[in-house]
Please model this.
Amino acid sequence: MEQVFFDLMETTPVIAAVKDDQGLKACCACEDIRIVFILYGDVCSIGRIVEQVKAADKTAIVHVDLIGGLSAKEVVVDFIRQATAADGIISTKPALIKRGKELGLFTTLRVFVLDSMAFENIQKQMSVARPDTIEILPGLMPKIIHRICRLVKVPVIAGGLISEKEDVVAALAAGAISVSSTNPRVWEM
Model:
């Protein structure tokens, strides 16, 4: 299963990150988008949102930290696995990533790189969570992306503030396997 996601990221390196129904509709209509990061919803709507992504023949990855009405405990991952057809999860919490791996979901650890202490934390989180990929934010830091690609042994996704073709090219040239963006113009690049 992991290889399927890696192949998708390499062949279509732009991931649509959706934060509302308007973005969901736009990404589902975009033929070039193959992977969708779902960054919104609540316990009542997440099943419907995932169904729409899957009906558009796209891979659905749910950011479990952003789903309203769900706890920050491992049971949230069990809920996503049992109540939706999601292919994977995103979280900033290593324990949730670890649980996702146990349940056979594709996992992405999201990390905010704000200062030098973040590098130490990345290594600690990686050893606990063992995610399939890591997403670093903001994604506009080619030198940092390159450094993290050398530091971790999993594919790196660059996300956050990616809005122009130059941003996408710089992140990919620095070693990111793909970029995620909420900007529909980026999805069509």
The CA atoms of residues 99 and 130 lie 10 Å apart.
